[in-house]
Amino acid sequence: MADPSTWRPAPGTIPTEPGVYKFRDEHRRVIYVGKANSLRARLANYFQDVTTLHPRTRQMVLTAASVEWTVVASEVEALQLEYTWIKRFDPRFNVKYRDDKTYPLLAVSTGETIPRAFFYRGPRRRGVRYFGPYSHAWAVRETLDLLTRVFPVRTCSKGVYNRHQSLGRPCLLGYIDKCSAPCVGRVSPEEHRDIVDGFVSFMNGHTDQVVRQLTREMEEAAAELEFERAARLRDDLEAINKVMEQQSVVLGDGTDADLVAVHSDELEAAVQIFHVRGGRIRGQRGWVVERTEEPVEALMQDFLIQFYSDAVERALLDARDEADRVERRGVDRYSSQPPRPGAVVPREILVQHLPDEADEVATLLGELRGAAVDLRVPQRGDKRALLETVGRNAQDALRQHKLKRVGDLTARSAALQDIQDVLGLEEAPLRIECTDISHIQGTDVVASLVVFEDGLPRKSDYRRYRVKEAAGGGHSDDVASIAEITRRRFLRHNQDRLSVPDEEAEAQTFADEQVEEMSTDVRRFAYPPNLFIVDGGLPQVNAAQKVFDELGIVDVTLIGLAKRLEEIWVPGEADPLILPRNSQGLFLLQQIRDEAHRFAITYHRQQRSKRMRVSELDGVPGLGATRRTELVRHFGSVKKLREATVEEIAEVRGFGPKLAAAVFTHLHPTAGDGPR
């Protein structure tokens, strides 16, 4: 860790104007971004006696190796630039209010020719409209099950859709009228799109028109003595009402508002937000974040800027997707339109505590909305009562979080301390990486690299590798594969470390004959681990150590963890280290090794399944792995592909008549060139 006095800017060189500053570590990675009305006064706080600083701030200052700043014209510009840099650099010491990837969502793939509605968890993608988040997975499925009675949209996967399209008959949902069956032409793509638009419009809150229409049709059917149709419409109306039951009116004046509350202790803070539209609660979300020495007002300010800036950015992407969809269909408008970028910021934002710079924050939110925003603390009435309810939810969320994590936090701290003691490290290994190899008799060799920070998995930094056969025709063994993966990972680290990263630079890839990196994250990966674990004994550890010596890696501790007796092998040592069986450190190492094994096995099964599924297509001239996969995905199976004509194969993306004929001939060796 660097001494702050060695890199502190000279007195008088820091300007007194408002601006935004960045702290960087020794690897030039941005670790903290902040803003200040006076840069000189704010930065001076970081260079006082480190023993008086908050523990998190002290750790940041000791990790940093330099500080930079940018002067801006106003405090509003400082707020905007701070958000932009936090989004861009993802600094580890900033509090980030991000969507929990485990939230269940209801998604509609509006970018497809035949859109479908489905349950979804994960990051948001272009061409998909999302509704939620929901508190439970069953709530998404129940909502979808109820609404498909009224809006029979497609809910099946692409493979199922293509299979029933080939069979010429719908699935069970089509027979019970919970799908309009576009796969067999029961409705045209345009008619199905209208059904989807109605579904999206209803989910956007336009429910009154649907209820009135169903009620009118039910009364007309009863008057015409069509009692079966009237009963079905009655059931549809009950399904709609059941979906709307949970959206009770909480503000009688039809207010559009967001209510935000924060509850905190010395270490963490819980944030809750209720979205009220038309006087009804349309959604609820919550976060628990680490707290620094900043007051609650500063937490509120950071949350408002990050949350609404992200929301407007997502709305812009949705609007762009909708514009592309309109252009593809060649029409001017739809029955449902995506939310305008400014519509995600309501006219009223009611908070428990006003931000530090309330006027500047209100101005920035007004720019995002395109109109004035009323940012205030309600003093009385229904709004005050509802905000107190939001506050109680925040308090309960923090309490539940503490109950769930207190034992884990203590165990993780003890585990890291055990590992530090047994390996004789100067500090606890806060970042640990582990690699494992998976194969069956030397075929489909793959490897995984998992990352744990502070004793918890950091899945955004996971990597997976495909190890190819050696040039001589043989297969790589575990020792050679471990060496290759280690070289790949730390060659990447060395290359990035030797070149100072540009602020606009993205992650680089390096060609390699033996290893292909399959990354789940495109950001730079130059941040080194404190501890690197290989799955295996002394041979694997010594192979990895040779790579370390070759690349000059001296700042990373290397060990191996053997499965037989859970021994810890250190390079160059004849005897392993043995941790007590009840050691928290041993338990954490096992957990990390097992996670690497799970991740490798999962990827190996994917590769093996892909190879076996398209093995019948091996040997087709000009047909590579990507096109083989696309071909099988299009038809659903090799069996269905064998029944296709040359013309049908040529319709697959990336296929022309010549390649389609080659595929057909390969699958029908006695058929010549196939039917024309």
From TrEMBL:
Keyword annotations from UniProtKB, A to Z = Coiled coil, Cytoplasm, DNA damage, DNA excision, DNA repair, Excision nuclease, SOS response
GO terms of molecular function? DNA binding; excinuclease ABC activity
Where is it found, in Gene Ontology cellular component terms? cytoplasm; excinuclease repair complex
Q: Which residues form the UVR domain?
A: 208-243
Q: Where can this protein be found?
A: Cytoplasm
Q: What family, per the record? A: Belongs to the UvrC family.
NCBIfam families recorded for this chain?
PRK00558.1-5 (NF001824), uvrC (TIGR00194)
What is the official name of this protein in its record?
A: UvrABC system protein C
Gene encoding it?
uvrC
